[in-house]
Amino acid sequence: MSAITDLGDTYVEALSALHPNAATSLGIAGHEDELTDYSVEGFEARDRLTRDTLARLEELADEADGDRILREVMREALTVDAELHETGDYLAGLNVLASPMQGLRSTFDLMPTEGEADWSTIARRLARLPEALAGYRTTLEAGLAGGRAAARRQVEACVKQCETWAGNGDGGFFAEFVGRAGDVSEGLQRDLDAAAIAAAESYRAFGVFLRATYLPRAGERDGVGEERYARYARSYNRCDLDLHETYAWGWDEIHRIQAEMEEAAEQIAPGQGVQAAKEVLETDPERSIEGVEPFRQWMQDLQEQTIADLNGTHFDIPEKLQRLEAMIAPPGGALAMYYTSPSEDFSRPGRTWYPTGGKTRFPLWGEVSIAYHEGVPGHHLERGNTRLLDLSRFQRLIGDCSGYVEGWALYAERLMGELGYLEVPDYKMGLLASQALRTVRVIIDIGMHLELAIPGGQPFHPGEVWTPALGDEFARTRSHFPADFIASEIDRYLGLPGQAISYKVGERYWLAAREEARQSLGEAFDLTTFHREALAMGPMGLGLLAQESARLGDGA
Length: 556
Hints:
Radius of gyration: 23 Å
Number of strands: 5
């Protein structure tokens, strides 16, 4: 083992001890009954680890073949973390999707629940939740004392989440969760019930704090401005983007996709346009599934069939990745489907999670391409494959960024269309709607945060400055997703500046990498080989992906 590999592995172990929630998410064993310290002291401790590791990295020489890339991956990931901490933005780190408030609850979704030992671990961790949530509250209070506060929109959404998870005197999420324990000892069930009541009450109290104390001092401005936005965009993509060029490119892309949607609509509702075609797709009983469990099973069957079809043709799918579980997400979160990775030892499989939003009928036209995005050949193939690579733990577990991961998943959707899996007009329309949504994100995420004017030549409110209301209207009319979903998306974009563009920006980089390899290799280019070799490099930032994928084309 090289000194740099050893340093990276040491960092992963130390980070797991300081950030047990991340350890659970990454599937690292040893901290299952602990919770992350989200107090100021906890954030400072993790920052010291980051800076100490960066300093040590610069002292070490390359010793092994993989050290060059590993050094770059570590440097870019740790530098971004250090820069973000230095801003102090964590003192107002509250948003609707990915702040400590959500992380403390969602970590329980990832814990094994097979028997007495598992539930005993859960009881110990759950009993620590009130203290962990209180620690996070002190950080937000420190932010308020220093004049820092999250935006009102994010606070209001988080209050609703707290109320949902706390329940109406019934223990909410936590009572339902421990109610699944089944055949455990009477004493353990008492511990679980008591911990669930305390956890629910802690979220209820946290919601009261947000509503009564925090909300009156919340910020009124949703956008973060160009300087902060550029910093966050870099953290999610790990490349320096020309935001104004990216914004203009988004407009070009949405026009291209809209033209293709008009063509697809002709095959569904001839002569009536995209909106009429969407109405057919949404209301035709033959194009839908009734019932949450039948829909979950349909999703499971689709994933398994896709794995069987692609394995040995366009991908080599290892046996450990041929298990993928389709799940229904707990209520209260955002309405976008998501994926959770397998644990390091694959005892916990990869899972796709579908938030129903209270629906019991599921039109299928938009679900197929999303399944490819979240499952195979999207997140499950890339994330799961990364777990199996002969690379350092740092690269396998924390070397990625959103642009790399989400860009691959969006590339995977497009790839399935290229391979003929979306030839049914319904599913082709679903793919285009998915592409439209990701392109809309580029336009309105940059537009809202930078408070740009809509170009004068556009048919949508030309010359007006972007607002959340305009973003909502634009997203609904251009992507054709449901209104409740779009409302949830707007909250998400404004709470996580720069993250929403990483999908389309990442796809742009992946497509460029494939095209460069195709041009360099000519007739020798093989798609399966490209996929294998590109993924074998391991996760990295988009700038490094562009650099290293060029070496693939050179045969390096």
